[in-house]
Amino acid sequence: MNPAFLAVATATLLAQQPVAVRGQPSSALPAGPRLDNGDSLPLLLGETSAKAILAHRTAYRHNLAKVKVNANLRARWSAIRQPLTLVVVFGSWCADSQYHLPYLLALTAEPNAFIEVRYIGVNRDKKLDRAVWPQGVEPQALHRVPTFYLFATQPGGGQKLMGTVVENPPRAGQSMAEALVELVESAAKAI
Questions:
Q1: What is the pLDDT of residue 74?
Q2: How many CB atoms within 10 Å of residue 56?
Q3: What is the pLDDT of residues 103-161, one digit of tens each?
């Protein structure tokens, strides 16, 4: 990736106002950050933002610096004009999440107003409270992270699940950026 573009993209993501963070009620959590049982580092739990993900662990920033998303994929992502919600459930502790989320972060460095991206962090048990799902989105079963759930906005504001990418891109040698662009394109055509 072009170092100048990377610097601008990272600065843009870090400068964006974070989405309101929702999670479990504060009374359900112990005081202070929850630590991962595997590596004793803090966890990102519940709804979070791209800015918080990049600030959370250096692996996300290092992997973003290595990501190469070509202009064609960026243009295809930007061309989507149907309202979609991409819910990304990830583990801040998860190597697959640390590897694949930077592809989405690179795609969304120039946001598409028609694609709302919501990030939800989970613990190693992968249990999600229904309350952390965005309003209008039916909570989904989660078995692996990261899982990318794509919903289309329906008349009346409800959301319909259009497809998923679970843990890795579906084709060998495919980048997560390419897999996500294909997912949103196929959903946009189906609407």
A1: 96
A2: 18
A3: 999 999 999 999 999 999 999 999 998 999 998 899 999 999 999 999 998 888 789 99
Q: Give the whole-number percent of the chain exceeding pLDDT 70.
A: 83
CA R_g for the chain: 16
Q: Cα(160)–Cα(13) distance, rounded to whole angstroms?
A: 28
Tell me the pLDDT tens digit for each residue of 35-61: 888 778 889 999 999 999 999 899 999
The C-alpha angle 18, 118, 182, rounded to 5 degrees, equals 130
Alpha-carbon gap, residue 51 to 56, rounded angstroms: 9
Its pTM stands at 0.82
Location of structure tokens 């662990």: 57
The three-state (H, E, C) secondary structure of the chain, written as one string: CCHHHHHHHHHHHHHCCCCCCCCCCHHHCCCCCCECCCCCCECCCEEECHHHHHHHCHHHHHHHHHCCCCHHHHHHHHCCCCCEEEEEEECCCCHHHHHHHHHHHHHCCCCCCCEEEEEEECCCCCCCCHHHCCCCCCCCCCCCCCEEEEEEECCCCCEEEEEEEECCCCCCCCCHHHHHHHHHHHHHHHC
Taking each helix axis as running N to C, give the angle between helix 95-107 and helix 176-190, from 0 to 180 degrees, rounded to the nearest 10. Answer: 60
